[in-house]
Amino acid sequence: MRLVSQLVKLIRPKQWIKNSYVFAALVFSGSLFNLSMFMMCCFGFTIFCISSSCVYIVNDAIDASSDRAHPQKMNRPLASGAVSITQAMLLLLTLLILLLLSFVYVNIHFRVVISIYLLINLLYSFWLKNEPIIDIICISLGFVLRAISGAVIINVTISPWLLICTFLLSLYLAINKRTCEIKNIAIEAAYKRKVLEFYTIDMLSSMSSVVLSATITAYCIYIITTELMANMLITIPFVVYGLFRYQHIANSTEYAESPETAILKDKPLLICVLIWGLACVSFMYINFT
Known about the structure:
This protein is mostly helical and 289 residues long. It is 69% helix and 0% strand.
């Protein structure tokens, strides 16, 4: 049973919340209550969870030796030795087989998006994570591909502004993640990402300010220029508060290194996200009921 729990930990189910971006096109196209489209998005979400878990296994296998020097990452299954490389590769092979079998039930466009996602992340794991600027762009592109996959799997047109908002938001989170990692270097003296040698707190702070402003601007333009968004202007204050609240978290706590942890542990931010989500669904679908 301990091995099973460690294998489950290896595929990082807690990280699957990131794949919820697959549902963005479904919600913002006004198709949330279309059962067949909803089921297809759920299937797409599942496929993305399998794909991202494959990436996590590869990444952990590559970083196992360096993770042993990190106070938290040393407890990961491969770094701690709870799961052997052979066991991890067998699990990876199983997931890849499931992934290939699932391709039978999705269109070619979705397969292409998943393939691009896997390729970018493989390049990231082996090389691009050590390339400054490119590393955070790769992280952001992963979220954009999630949003695109949700559109192509149900054959709806996705707004370019939604993709821009997705890219900028994920870029903002990635920048703050790097900032938090630099702040923790003193605590994690034996562990240091190679790419952090390029970044400084001041540089990342400047980048964060620019991207934060661009994110708010892009969201406002998206709301104003999309016909279905007439009632969505009320969501802008929640977006502004949520982003500023996260900036506070990034400056005063270690949570920013894991955005999903920040959302779950910070009650004001969690409440803001929930209210924003409910407001989006409520106001968007007034015109559809």
